[in-house]
Design brief:
31% of the residues are buried. It is built from six helices and six strands. By secondary structure, it is an alpha/beta fold. A hairpin with a 2-residue loop joins strand 5 and strand 6. It has a domain of 136 residues: Lumazine/riboflavin synthase (Rossmann fold), CATH 3.40.50. A four-stranded parallel beta sheet has the order 2-1-3-4, with helices on both faces. Strands 5-6 form a two-stranded antiparallel sheet.
Length: 215
């Protein structure tokens, strides 16, 4: 405890100043926890973990690609296919569906997911800001449509639809300064494909508690 002579007090009331009260409170808390002068870090709890692998060897993938702004979407598609192939997927394990624009992605992705053939679906598109509010309407509805499609089918859908203000921003995200978002989407598709199947397996579900016997 600091000496009462050195503790700053209010000249009018004689009460401890805010800084002194805060310091004393911190010192008291540190002493109570037995960790004086150290920040309290809880020990990591031991728990079961369910994770998805990054090997595409036994999975099938669907890729839905918008033809609109193909200068960008083709680069995203190339990045996604490269990652899938590097992860072990063959051409027979990947189906690519091309649609006119991003607005047609959700319905196509839902139909492909409903077939039961694919572990996950990668949705690729590019929407650029224009002079009207069309950009906002399309961006919002495409995102909502993909989300609803994956919730309805239970098949993971990876959202790789760029919504950029300028063409330069899109180019940066299609292989330049900000990497290739198509490649990132492929990694997510592989991981979520495995994770979704593991969660659906009986062993991953919590076991029901046995019913109590009545006496």
């Amino acid at each position: 405890m600091p000496s009462s002579k050195n503790v700053p007090r209010n000249s009018r009331t004689g009460k401890l100043s805010r800084s002194a009260r805060g310091t004393g409170g911190r010192q008291t808390a540190a002493k109570a926890s037995g960790r004086s002068g150290e920040s309290f870090m809880p020990e990591p709890a031991r728990f079961g973990q369910i994770r998805g692998d990054l090997s595409a060897g036994n999975l099938h993938f669907a890729v839905v690609v918008s033809r609109f702004n193909s200068f960008i979407t083709e680069r995203l598609l190339a990045g996604a296919l490269d990652v899938l192939e590097r992860a072990g997927a063959t051409a027979a394990q990947i189906d690519v569906a091309r649609v006119p624009g991003s607005f047609e992605i959700p319905i196509t992705a839902k139909k492909m997911a409903a077939s039961g053939r694919y572990a996950s679906v990668i949705c690729i598109g590019c929407i650029l800001q224009g002079e009207t509010q069309h950009f906002e309407y399309i961006s919002t509805e495409v995102a909502r449509g993909v989300q609803l499609a994956q919730l309805d089918t239970g098949v993971p859908m990876i959202f790789c639809v760029l919504t950029c203000e300028t063409l330069e921003q899109a180019i940066d995200r299609a292989g330049l300064k900000s990497g290739n978002k198509g490649a990132e989407a492929a990694l997510a598709a592989i991981e979520m494909g495995h994770l979704s199947r593991r969660l659906a397996a009986p062993s991953a579900q919590p076991k029901p508690r046995p019913a109590r016997r009545r006496r």
